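Purpose: get a first structural picture of the assembly so the mutagenesis plan has something to point at.
Setup: two entries, given in the order below. No constraints added.
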Amino acid sequence: MNLRFTLNGKPWQVDCEPQETLAEVLRNTLNLNGTKVSCEVQVCGACTVLVDGVPVSACTYLAYEARGKSVTTIEGLEKPDGTLHPLQQAFIDEFAFQCGYCTPGMIMSAKALLDENPQPTRDEIIHYMDGNICRCTGYVPIVAAIQRASEVMSKETKK
Amino acid sequence: MLGELGDKARLYAGGTELLLAMKHDLLRYEHLIDVKTISDLNKIELKNGSLMIGSTVTHRALERSPVVKENLPVLAQMETNVANVRVRASGTLGGNLCFAEPHSDPATLLLALGARAHVQGKAGSKTVGIDKLITGAYETSLASDELLVGVEIPIPTKSKQAAYLKFQLHERPTLGLALVLDVDGDNVTTATAVVGSVSTVPTQSGKANSILVGSKAQIEKQLPDAAEALAEAADPVDDLEGSAEYKCHLIRVFLKRAFSQALS
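Result (structure tokens, whole complex):
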């Protein structure tokens, strides 16, 4: 089937099988390997991408569902000049990753959270990020990074 | 379409359960029929004192809906704690009920709230209670050409207090417990307690419900008896979430908590 959708802000079309998942199309057809696949059962959150701003597990989301919609992956966050998104920068500054495998999914989930709720409380962050698993950091720096990004982003919008 | 394709096809909504089972080769279908393309199934409406929820409404939509928050806060609160945000964003209420996964949070609460399922088939439409819709683990009473159109939940009167609590260690709840009490001063006039996840289908017990009626002080003393009656009706099974004995213990603990939360 021919699939048309917006990918990281640009109109895109690909041929895919009806049973292909969005993660398979992104990684295997489009070579966008930033989206990671791990548990394959919607528990770990490594494959999180945004479809029309809503976080979904790309590993268990049929590519068909993205038809006519806008898909954002980790590759679509930096500015054209290469400046990192405040969340990406905050994850570096707070050292919110070690092996890095969960990081793209963490950042995409956090982006969905901050887009919806720009200044979440610590409890709101923890509840929202509950579906993203990290086996290295112990989560403390991840929460700190999201709080830092939230501050940076609200200062940017005030400017 | 479903009538023509028969067993080769299955209705598909959010895919959060069906696609997992298909990926693991537990289920095989040649065709998936996307019910989300049917317009009007994704609406939440207030009609004649009931909340009408279309079957393709997602958990996330229910969690965030102002109409739900205002009229049935216990439903919004339950939905907030279903799985994780990605599952809630894709998964639908109708899909959850029709897949009849034994660890469903919505099924347990909806049974306690007296919800009714609207079913449309080739032969016509009908309305059935949640206990008549969900008949076993992964089993419903829906015929192969029938579709769950939506769920109708009567808005509880002001005298009613409801609570839904769950206990979860792994990906799915070990126990879900819903309690709806009709309160008149210091007395409870009617009570419905439903326990889910501990066995194949959400269960209530007439005996437990009758023990939960009377003065609040008296009921508090009888809570262990009510829990025992509820556990007996549910007949918990041993599984990876815990032994039957452990689940009976949880029913005691959570019935007590639900009682104090419902009355708070």
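Chain B is about 40% helix and 30% strand.
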